[in-house]
Amino acid sequence: MRPPNSLWQGYSGYWQDLFIRENFLPLGDAAWRGFMSQGRGMVACQIAIAPRSVDWSNEAVEYTVEFIPLAEISAYLQTLHLEATLTQRLIDTVQTYNPVQEILLLINENGRVDIHLLQNLKVSPPECHQQVQRRWSEFQLHSSLGGLL
Questions:
Q1: Domain locations along the chain
Q2: Which of 2, 9, 112, 121 has the most beta carbons within 10 angstroms of its beta carbon?
Q3: pLDDT tens track for 80-92
Q4: Which residues 6+ apart lie within 8 Å of 56 measured at CB?
Q5: Structure pTM?
Q6: Distance of CA 4 to CAs 1, 9, 10, 57, 87, Å?
């Protein structure tokens, strides 16, 4: 059972759900752009510092995001030293997920890997892409935020 989400996530230490919520549109956009240009794959986020005590209403978490196409997933996961059985399960998932309605997301925080298959989305990856394109200025890097992407 996961701890409840709160604005001040530092109490429980489980921050991944709030990270996904706060960055959902760019993550969905990356998933859709990656799928459209490279086919099936997964979105990988690298976070240098765990946002365990972030006030999500006022702070931004710095991260990088990339799309890993199916053909490169095995090699990418080997760099993370994941078990072969987990790697095979992820490859199987990439081959069967619905890229129009779902997002396969890997969050890597200093070697700690969390994997999420986001399903039953209220905003689909194509809709995320459309919203990011319409609202592009909101997703640009700003020096006051320290950079989001």
A1: 11-139
A2: 9
A3: 998 889 999 999 9
A4: 7, 9, 18, 21, 22
A5: 0.78
A6: 9, 9, 12, 16, 29
